[in-house]
Hints:
39% of the residues lie in helices and 22% in strands. With 271 residues, the protein is α+β, with helices and mostly antiparallel strands. Strand 1 and strand 2 (127-132) form a beta hairpin.
Amino acid sequence: MKRKLILGLAVFCLAGPACADWAINMPKGITDMSHETWRLHMHVFWWCVAIGIVVFGTMAYTIFKHRKSRGHQAAQFAHNGKLEVVWTAIPVIILLIMAVPAAETLVKLEYTQDPDLTVVITGYQWRWHYEYPDLGVEFFSTLAAESNAARRKGSGIDPATVENYLLDVDKPLVVPKGAKVRVLLTSKDVIHAWWVPALAIKKDAIPGFMNQMWFRPEQTGTYRGQCAELCGVDHGYMPVVVHVVEPAEFKTWVAARAEEAAPATAAGEEE
């Protein structure tokens, strides 16, 4: 038994470095609201840790110190009014300490007014449609061809060789750094969910209903997420990719997308 225990501990220690990249905690993200959400999360987490230490520490001490083998007898009383008031008041105070900042953060998260940019996102089985109504730009975003080929049975492609396997798309959502982006979210078939951890936002896309959310990215880069609502057989092949660029680069991108759309619009008018 001791040999197995020692062997198990040795394997655990050796496996530790391999698990070092596991993202167990909530990410801080790239927006002010994601940072505030993270701080709120850690605030509540440490309160729970403190409560756990006090409660289980008291239980362990009492069980050990007042065990029957030491001659202690069970107390014979029905209740203690003062003690009941104390253990009711303390949780109420702790809940208020948690609830007030949580409510303030929720109010900020739902304040979608005065955006710099509006994007309408529509979920389909199994792709996303992005529309910039004020800019005349719209397109579908689907799983990247490399991932789509590797996921198929008998493809002969090792998924480990595909960069960002199942987390890459052909056309990402592009937004400018520092802009408040309001998202109007809906669906054309079943319930989907648009989720990007780095933005600390996740909302359901519901048929016949328009959800709202917002984010203001403070760092350029590419940030990945997924559909977070089981939506059918290809649910796992519906990634979300957001590309944050500098404002000048965003204007160039919008102009390029408008030029691409012009021939198609002209052809439609001729018909």
